[in-house]
Every structure is written in structure tokens, then in C-alpha cells.
Specification:
The chain has about 950 residues and is mostly beta strands. Helices cover about 10% and strands about 45% of the residues. The protein folds into three domains: about 625 residues, TonB-dependent receptor, beta-barrel domain (Maltoporin, Chain A); about 160 residues, no CATH class; about 100 residues, no CATH class.
Length: about 950
């Protein structure tokens, strides 16, 4: 991969794509460290040496064209050859590997989540939704389903690698250039613009331990005829599922390497309230673990090692893992194309379109049933009369079955995602000025159907009427109480944009003044619809609906001031205005950056800018949901002169001012089943922050270059969800805005009251560290050419704060953000032969349940993995490759803080469960 701080793009196809040639010394150094230039190196170098005319290039992070790729802000440039030679199959794989992706990617490994059919990147750890993703500098719509049901993000899985010429990654805040969401950075997918000929590609992969077989087919064709050029891409990408049972470290509920695993207690048990003592009696199902048992042999007999404990009794258990996936099955097809036509006067018309349709199939274990809410809180339980699904226990007390509903089969989701978009536009020149205007329309649709779900009231009415869950459930009952939950969601955006850049007619001592501007108007819309049974709350799996829209108008300007031959100052500002029913309003984002070049080989740079993020549409216009929670009434406790945890005097407890009545001490006793509403909040405001970067780039020799960029990013008013207890505590502390979220019954208690824990602007996060990069080239004559490229990110400190009244939490490695990430790539080329070796290091980090201060007992071990590839070119038409990813077959390191399957961090993208993966690839150029 190329870090633009230390190298320039050398391959002819990349040079054509960005229409640039660089200063001789810088380009020569870049060619010397190019990872895959090889056979073209001498030819490309000669072309550069013969070049007499320098052209300008526009790089992500600025709309001003310049003759250097390196500028005041750090940008990574990743071209096709880079990620193909390193074994990456998808855009997610490429971006997940970046050392700046310290927050870890959203990947499809987390099949339990709200978005198993999508993926996203999390630069600097500010959250997946705070990295802006663009295609050719233009926004795409957010995924219509939110992370945790509410957090919007940009789906990378809808972007095929076939359309990509290169990926530019700005690792600095950039709201002054691109507006909202550009907090942790910007990912700009640059698509192919010109392609002549026809190329086919086929890749097949498999793993040494089975599962996750992959196949990819690709066709790219293009033609140029006079003033018109056109190209198209077709791509098919599929992978088989990877079952948990196919990996020994996750093959069962007790496979935990640290020995903490237990089988699920939801096998087949009866939990009864002892009518004599009020205690709990657990009766495991007779025959559990045998073919004649209620689970048909799938149960784990009481007393089996790892069977766990249910209210102190060894229960009839269940092994969930045999049904679980470590990675879902996917099948994805894409089509894209572009056409350009040049008119008289230098005006170019262009049209670009893309379409992706994917099918994702996920699976987890059958539904665990326990009455309406034995282990929940939303409905009555055995202690409360009239609980749904009640029966009578062997001791005559009220009882409820705790049962794995194996008769209904595993819970599966068939997720169909369709993403399509088109851009129509024109660009041209007017003297030293360039302009571009375009209209873009994008849509992403998600339709999902699930199996293994039940209608709770229908099942419970049968239990109330004598259905015995210690026996197999008849198929007639299964048919009667089953249903298919449906999710139908869509997001779209319409975008009109006008951009221009050029040079003013007067110069400063360092050269002409560069100017750029942009105007945008965008309409955003989404909806998320569920079936009526799910919305009624009568489904075994929950869900809610929502929908909304907003308009955005933005104007931005930049100016480049070369005040000296060696000093360039850049100023930028942008105004974004949101028109909807919320409190978002408008935001102005300034930025200042400076580049100082004391010598031709040394660049010192710095930047400061403000960032912001508009509230998610889901969090503004999504629905609310109601649950029931247990809390301490800190407000009443404090009003009676007490503090939580310390008993009040009996005279106060039994006195007339205690709204809960005599005998109830609100300082030590909890209030049960308080209705709590969570979800959207139309009163949200934008999150606000700033970003600082200081760096140096030094091309020491033609063969050696290094860079270092120190960064500090801060974001305040981060939208978060308070708990019901937090609301009560804040009100008790005098925060009146939280007191308005509490309602009480006529007596002044929470027994008949409610808490409104909707999302709010609450939190703070700050991160600082340094990005290092180095490249070195060795021309070994008849032994070939060796190119080395390394990138390292060090997180010096991460600070978070839930709200203004909470203490700040600071440390390194906390919240599953590693202190160190590093990549080292070695490329070797000799004639028609080539090879790549990539080493990837993820340092120690805190487990998902770690606390501060972080200790060794809470730390996930570091991991070092290797990808390798060898290549051979048969003339100019055929290329053959063989590669191995993770060829030392490293397993994901165990999380010592997580006693639950799969015992490693599977939701962050740092580690994958595939193990050693082999692949072969054939590329044919039909000329």
C-alpha cells in the first residue's frame, strides 16, 4: 500500500488516471519505492525524465489542484495492484488493514447484530458512522439499518473492487471540505475513468480447516473512439459460510481456551416458585441428553462438565455453538459503467452508473423461551400473577418452562441488499479555471426475512392450556405459532453539486493564488419498516419501524496562498445547513493548514480544523421502544435527606413524606419494572469537534523516504443513550433537563410512572497519537528489485467522558483500541516473476469488558499475521498468482474479559476466524 507522504504513484495507468507528473526528484524517489512497478519501472522513469510539462492533480482533502501530491494534510493512496498483491478480496479487507483504522471495522463476523449484511470502517476509533465514505468525491447514502438499531454508517460491502482505480484516505478531520461525518477521516473511492481492451479475472480460495470457500469472477471492458470513451465492469463474488463448529477454538459452548465456557442453561427445565418458602426450584427435563428427551438428543444432561448453573442447580443444558456461524454465506453481483464524450470547447459530458445485488444468509441457534420475561423485565414473571406461559410445578407452585425451541429450527435471516446509483455531469476548462457540475442519485434497499421466530401469545396460550414443554412440541403447534418476520428498509440521496478551481490573475512571492469552491444541495431519506406482529411486541425477536428525510444545502471555499517559495498557507471554510424537523440547524467549519518545504526533499506540515456530525436520521426519526427496568429512585431518596446505599431512619421511611409508603426505603430498595422509553429524539443537535495534525515528510534519498504525522482529534456532544438510572441520578444532581424525562404517578412514585431515556447529546472522546511511515528500495541487479513499505500507528492516549458530570476515563489500549498497529510490505520483482509478503501486527488492547486502569488480566494479546503471494506473467496477456493469507494459521487471541462465545473480539475486524487461506488467481488481457 502506498502512503502518499513517502511516495508518489509511478505506474503509467495511475499517472494517467490522475493526469499528473511530478517534480523529477520526488517522482524518481517514488518510483524507487513503488511496490509493484517492476518491469515497467525503467520505462516509467524514462517517461518522467522526458516530461517537460508538469500538470496538476486534485487529491482528497482539497479541491485545489496542485503539482505535488504531498500537501498540508496526510493522504494515503492505495491502488489496485497494492491490494490485489496483498491478498485482499473486498474493499472492507483493504480498509480494515489500515493502521489508522484503530477503531476496528464493522464486519460481517458479528452475525448477531442489526447489520450482518453490511460492513464499515472506523478511522481513529470515533465510530463507524464518523468516517465519511465518498465515490469520486460524492456522498453515498447511509445504510438504511443502524448499528444497534440507531447508528447510521456507510456500507462498504456495496462497493465492488472491480470499479476501483484507487482509494484515497484522508486521515485528518475534513468537515471544512466535505461537511458532516468527516471526523475520523475520509475514504474516497476513485473509480476507473478510462480503460481500453477486455480483461477477465477469476479467483478461487479455500481454507486449510474448511469453510469460507471464496470465488470471484470479473470482466472489465472498455473502448475509446475519437472523443468518446466507455467502459463496463461485471463482478461476481461469493463465499460459503464458516460454521463455528469448523474451528476448534469456537466449536462448542465450552471450547473457551481459558476454560470459562458453559453450555446454555436454556435446554429444557422447569423453574418453579416454592409455595412454602418462596424460593426457586429447578427441575431438569427427564431424559435430557437422550434421543427420547424433549430436545431429541440435543440437550446436555445435568451434571455434564460445563453444564453451568441455573439458580444453583445443574440444569438440562444446550450447546448453541453447533448452530452458529463465524461468518455468513454471501453471494454478490455487480454491474457498473461509465461513458465520457468530449464536446467542442473542451467540455466533457460523463455518466456513471453502478448496481449491486447481494444475498446474505445468517444462522444462529433456536430461540430460547422462558415464559414472557423470567429473565427479562418487560412483562410479569413467576412472582407476579397472570404471567404468560405459566404452568404448575410438581410442588404445586407457579412455574415456567425454560426451553430451547429446537422444533422451530435455527433462527436464520435471508438478507437481500440492492444498491444502485447514477451520476450525470459535465466538466470543462475556462482559461486557468476548471469546473464540474453533476447530479447524483443513489439508493440502497434491504429486505430481510427470518425463520425460527414465534408468536409469543400463541405459544403461551397453549402452555396455559396444558402444552407440556418437557415433551417434543407437535408439528401442528409449530406450524400454528410460527411466523416470518420481515424487514423492509431503504435509504437514498439526491445530490446536486457544482465545483470549480483555478488560479487568480495575480501572484504571491511563491506563485499564483489557488482558489476552489463548491456548492451542494442534497436530499436524504430513509425508512425502516417491520411486520405488524413484530411491531406489536408479540414476536420472539424484537424490532421497530421509523422513517424520515431532510435537505442539506452547503457552500464551501478554499484558498491556497504561496506566501514564499517554500511556504504555502491554505484556508478553507464550509457552511452546511440542514432543513428538517429537528434542532440540527447549520454549522460552519473552518480549517487552516500550512506546508513548508525548506528543501526539495523535506516537507513540514500542519493543520487545524473544526469538525461536526449531523445527527443520524435513525436517531432523529426512528421509532421509540418501551422496556421495563429496575432502578433506585435517587430523586426521592435525596429529597428525604438520604443517599443511595445508606438506609434512612425508620421515622423517615415510615413518615408521611415518603411517597412509597411505610416500610419501603427508596435509598436501599429498588423500584421494579419501571416503564422506560428509548429511541429517537428530534431535539438532537450536531456533534462538534476539532482536529490537529503536525507532520514531516523526508525523501532522504531516491531510495529512502520517511514520514511522521502527529494527530489529536476531539469530539464533543457525542450522541449517546442514557440509562434510566442515569436520568434519575442527573435529576437528583440538579440537572433540570433530565428531570423533565421523569413522570410519576399520583402518589409521586415510579410504580406507575415512566422514564424517557431517548438519545441525547452527551459524550466526549479525544484521541492522540502518531502515524509513522517509511519506504526503502533495493535494486539487486540480476537478483531483482526489493521494495519495502511500512506503516505504523501509535495511540498515545484515548480519553472518553459519558457526560459533563461524569469523570473522564483516559488510558492506552482501552475500549478495544490497540496502542500499536503496524504493517510491513515487501515486494520482489524480477522480469516476469513477482512476490509480495505482508506482515500485519495488532498490538495489545483491552478486552470488551475491560475497566480502567487496564491490567494485564484484562488485556488481549498482540497478534502477528503474514500474507504472501507469488506471481508470474506469461507475456503481456496472462497473469497467474498463488497466495496464502495468514500462512502461519494464527487463531484470534482470546479475550480474557469475555467469558462468552466466541471468546475473541469478533465485532471489531482486528481478527478474522478464517485461519490459513489459499487462493489462486488468473487474469487474462484480451487485446
Amino acid at each position: 500500500m502506498k502512503r502518499s507522504a513517502t511516495m508518489t504513484i509511478a505506474r503509467k495507468k495511475i499517472a494517467r488516471a490522475i493526469e499528473s507528473s511530478l517534480f523529477g526528484s520526488l517522482l524518481t524517489a517514488a518510483v524507487m519505492v513503488s511496490g509493484t512497478a517492476t518491469g515497467q519501472q525503467e520505462e516509467t522513469t524514462n517517461e518522467v525524465e522526458d516530461s517537460a510539462q508538469l500538470e496538476s492533480v486534485q487529491v482528497t482533502g482539497s479541491r485545489i489542484r496542485r503539482s505535488d501530491i504531498e500537501g498540508p494534510t496526510p493522504v494515503l493512496i492505495l491502488d489496485r495492484d497494492d491490494f490485489e498483491n496483498q491478498g485482499f478480496l473486498t474493499v472492507t479487507d483493504v480498509l480494515d488493514s489500515l493502521t489508522q483504522n484503530t477503531g476496528g471495522s464493522l464486519t460481517q463476523q458479528f452475525v448477531f447484530g442489526f447489520t450482518p449484511g453490511a460492513s464499515g470502517v472506523n478511522l481513529r476509533g470515533f465510530g463507524t458512522g464518523r468516517t465519511l465514505v465518498l465515490i469520486d468525491g460524492r456522498r453515498i447514502p447511509v445504510y438504511p439499518l443502524g448499528i444497534s438499531g440507531t447508528i447510521n454508517f456507510f456500507d462498504l460491502s456495496s462497493i465492488p473492487t472491480a470499479i476501483i482505480e484507487r482509494i484515497e484516505v484522508l486521515t485528518d478531520g475534513a468537515s471544512a471540505i466535505y461537511g458532516s461525518d468527516a471526523v475520523g477521516g475520509v475514504v474516497n473511492i476513485i473509480t476507473r475513468k478510462d480503460f481500453d481492451g477486455l480483461t477477465t479475472r477469476a479467483r478461487f480460495g479455500d481454507t486449510s480447516d474448511g469453510g469460507y470457500e471464496t470465488r470471484q469472477f470479473e470482466v472489465v471492458g472498455g473502448v475509446t473512439n475519437g472523443r468518446t470513451s466507455a467502459y463496463f465492469t461485471l463482478q461476481h463474488l461469493a463465499n460459503e459460510e464458516l460454521l463455528s463448529s469448523q474451528r476448534d477454538y469456537a466449536a462448542s459452548d465450552i471450547a473457551d481456551p481459558l476454560g470459562r465456557g458453559t453450555y446454555s442453561t436454556f435446554g429444557s427445565n422447569l423453574v418453579e416458585i416454592d409455595p412454602a418458602t418462596g424460593g426457586i426450584i429447578v427441575t431438569p427435563a427427564p431424559g435430557c441428553g437422550t434421543p427420547s428427551g424433549p430436545l431429541g438428543g440435543a440437550g446436555i444432561a445435568p451434571g455434564t462438565p460445563g453444564s453451568g448453573s441455573l439458580f444453583g442447580v445443574s440444569p438440562c443444558g444446550f450447546n448453541r455453538t453447533e448452530f452458529r456461524q463465524l461468518f455468513p454465506e454471501n453471494d454478490r453481483n455487480t454491474l457498473s459503467g461509465r461513458i465520457d464524450h468530449e464536446l467542442d470547447g473542451g467540455i466533457n459530458l460523463f455518466a456513471f452508473g453502478r448496481w449491486t445485488k447481494s444475498q446474505t444468509n445468517t444462522q444462529i441457534e433456536p430461540f430460547p423461551y422462558a415464559g414472557t420475561a423470567l429473565f427479562g423485565g418487560a412483562a410479569p414473571n413467576p412472582i407476579v400473577p397472570n404471567n404468560g406461559g405459566l404452568t404448575t410445578g410438581p410442588n404445586g407452585g407457579p412455574a415456567v418452562f425454560v426451553r430451547r425451541l429446537v422444533e422451530f429450527g435455527p433462527r436464520t435471516s435471508d438478507i437481500e441488499t440492492e444498491s444502485y446509483g447514477a451520476t450525470l455531469g459535465a466538466d470543462g476548462r475556462f482559461g486557468s479555471w476548471e469546473w464540474e457540475a453533476a447530479y447524483t442519485y443513489n439508493v440502497q434497499e434491504v429486505f430481510s426475512q427470518r425463520t425460527g421466530s414465534i408468536i409469543l401469545s400463541a405459544l403461551e396460550s397453549r402452555i396455559d392450556n396444558g402444552l407440556d414443554l418437557f415433551q417434543p412440541i407437535p408439528q401442528s403447534v409449530v406450524n400454528a405459532v410460527s411466523f416470518t418476520p420481515i424487514t423492509d428498509a431503504e435509504s437514498r440521496n439526491d445530490l446536486f453539486d457544482l465545483q470549480f478551481n483555478g488560479f487568480m490573475p495575480w501572484d504571491l512571492p511563491g506563485g499564483p493564488i489557488g482558489v476552489a469552491g463548491v456548492a451542494e444541495f442534497e436530499q436524504q431519506e430513509f425508512f425502516d419498516r417491520r411486520d405488524p406482529i413484530t411491531l406489536s411486541g408479540d414476536a420472539s425477536d424484537g424490532g421497530s419501524s421509523g422513517g424520515g428525510s431532510r435537505d442539506r444545502l452547503a457552500f464551501g471555499a478554499e484558498v491556497s496562498l504561496p506566501i514564499l517559495d517554500t511556504v504555502e498557507v491554505n484556508l478553507a471554510a464550509r457552511w452546511d445547513d440542514y432543513d428538517d424537523a429537528s434542532e440540527t440547524g447549520s454549522a460552519i467549519s473552518p480549517k487552516v493548514s500550512v506546508a513548508w518545504r525548506p528543501t526539495g526533499s523535506l516537507l513540514v506540515r500542519g493543520s487545524w480544523g473544526e469538525t461536526f456530525r449531523a445527527p443520524d436520521l435513525q436517531r432523529l426519526f426512528g421509532s421509540t421502544t418501551t422496556a421495563f427496568t429496575t432502578v433506585n429512585d435517587t430523586v426521592v431518596c435525596q429529597s428525604l435527606g438520604g443517599s443511595v446505599g445508606s438506609a434512612l431512619p425508620p421515622s423517615v421511611v415510615n413518615g408521611p413524606n415518603n411517597p412509597y409508603g411505610a416500610g419501603f426505603d427508596p435509598c436501599v430498595q429498588t423500584v421494579q419494572s419501571v416503564r422506560t422509553t428509548t429511541g429517537a429524539n428530534i431535539g438532537l443537535e450536531e456533534e462538534e469537534g476539532d482536529s490537529i495534525n503536525l507532520g514531516v515528510v523526508w525523501n532522504i534519498t531516491d531510495d529512502l523516504a520517511v514520514s511522521a504525522d502527529a494527530y489529536r482529534m476531539k469530539l464533543e456532544q457525542i450522541i449517546n443513550t442514557p440509562t434510566g438510572q442515569f436520568i434519575l441520578n442527573q435529576c437528583a444532581a440538579g440537572e433540570q433537563s433530565f428531570c423533565g424525562s421523569i413522570t410519576r404517578d399520583s402518589a409521586g412514585t415510579l410504580n406507575g410512572g415512566a422514564l424517557f431515556a431517548t438519545v441525547r447529546n452527551l459524550s466526549l472522546q479525544e484521541i492522540q497519537g502518531i502515524d509513522f511511515s517509511a519506504s526503502y528500495a533495493i535494486n539487486a541487479g540480476r537478483y531483482g528489485r526489493f521494495d519495502f513499505q511500512s506503516e505504523t500507528t501509535w495511540v498515545d492516549e484515548l480519553t472518553t467522558q459519558f457526560d459533563d458530570s461524569s469523570p473522564k476515563t483516559a488510558g492506552v489500549g482501552i475500549f478495544s483500541i490497540p496502542e500499536w498497529r503496524s504493517n510491513l510490505t515487501t515486494n520482489w520483482n524480477l522480469g516476469d516473476f513477482g512476490a509480495t509478503l505482508r506482515a500485519s501486527f495488532v498490538g495489545e488492547l483491552g478486552g470488551i469488558n475491560s475497566t480502567v486502569p487496564l491490567t494485564g488480566a484484562q488485556t488481549v494479546d498482540s497478534q502477528l499475521t503474514f500474507n504472501g503471494q507469488v506471481r508470474y506473467s506469461l507475456g503481456d496477456s496472462t497473469e497467474l498468482s498463488f497466495g496464502v493469507n495468514n500462512f502461519t494459521d494464527q487463531k484470534p487471541p482470546t479475550d480474557p474479559t469475555n467469558p462468552q462465545w466466541p471468546w475473541f473480539i469478533n465485532a471489531g475486524g482486528f481478527y478474522n476466524p478464517f485461519g490459513r487461506e489459499f487462493y489462486v488467481e488468473w487474469v487474462q488481457h484480451w487485446r
